Amino acid sequence: MKNLIILILLAHFSNNSLAQNYDYRIISFQDEYTEIDSFHSILLETQGDRGWIKKFDLNFNFPFYDSLHNYIYCGSTSGCLFENSLNYEIVLMASGYDFDIFGIDPNNIVSDVRYKLTQKDGIKALVLQYTKVRLISDPSVEEYDSHLNFQVWYFENGSMEVRFGSYNLENSPNYVPGEGFYLFPNNHPPIYYGPEMGIRNSFKEDVGIGLDGPYDDYIVDNIGGYLKSLPPVGWVIRFERFIKSSTIEEIVNFENIFPNPTTGNLYIEPTFEIDNLEIKDITGARHFFVYQGNKVNIEHLNPGIYFVKLISNEKYIVKKIVKL
Question: In this structure, which topology does domain 257-323 adopt according to CATH?
Fold first, then answer.
């Protein structure tokens, strides 16, 4: 009987939680945007219900922090949650979106939310594609065809990505670059409406991570925040899952890189042995340098914002710098 109880407990634990201590970090980079094919249409399934919410059954166990899930609920706002939660645990590009519902032609659907179980780089995933969606209460849709495109990916390894497609919001009063999205309710002042960018632990509500600010100069905290300016087509913001330990990679604010801003030479005073050094610009393009003598010459780089990454075999650290 004692052995049977142990087996039952182990089986329950393996299906619902994980023994490791997991956390998330945020990375962003430039890539390409590719629309999905052979998809399912939320527009057709819901017959145009703009407040839709759907349970997505997965063909894999999706690990989220220290728990496992074989389905997820997502809705029209791009927010997602699990059955044991009363609030959205995942708010990646969460805001208010409409799709066109008048004169629906099932053979020519232009504005839609599409989804597919697929694979990317050999990893199973669920992808939700918000295709030519409109911002709620946007008065510029009819005249200017205002819209945006983006995808949210949920991977078998627990990581999540927002991939940005094209958008046409130049004439939309609902989008203010540097601030974000607004809602215009009837006879009321504008209401700030995201998009929210963050996640929180299902079982530990004070544990989470989010970003706040423009796509190329945001801050990261454990509360969440808002994406205040949209990136170029192909930009990716990834919430990457990793195991926390004393030697795991970690991104921290590293002050001992100076001068900052700089016109040429960077001097580095690391607190651990450095094996490699890498510098990225805001598009995600990498620039490799030989790390010797605690000095790096970056005179040939164009003026702008860069991210210096110091790498050892156990961890890395990142610092934002400005090249004048």
Answer: Immunoglobulin-like (2.60.40)
